Amino acid sequence: MRPLLEGLVGCYKLYLKRSEGQSSRNHTEEADEEEFADVRNMIKCWRMREHGQFEQKQPKARSALPKPLQTRGFSLGNELQSQTKGIWIWPVRHPRDERKCLLLLDTEGLGDVEKANEEHDIWLFVMAVLLSNILVYNTVGTLDHSGLEQLLYVKDMAQYVQARVGSCEDNPDNLDKYFPTLIICVRDLTLTLKLNGLPCTADDYMEHCFQIRKPETQRGREEANKSFNKERHLMCHYFKKRKCFMFPMPVNPEDLSKLENIPDRDLKPDFLKVANEFTSHIHQEVKYKNIDGVILTGQLFLQVAELYVAAQRSGDMVCIENTRVQVVQLANLQAVEDAKGLYQRKMECIEVHFPLKISQLHQHHEKCMDQALDLFYCHAVLDREHKHEKELVEHMKTTFLKLGTQNKQRSQETCRIRLKKLYCLVDETYQGFMQPGGFRKYQAMMKKIEEDYYKTTGLGDEMETMYKEFLEQKKESGNAILIVDKTLTSFQQQDLENKQKEKIMALQIKNMKAEQANQEKEISLLQNQYKKLQNTFSKHTQVIKTHTDENIQEIQQNHEKTMKNESKKKCIIS
Question: Which of 289, 300, 306 is nearest to 380 (CA)?
Answer without folding.
Answer: 300
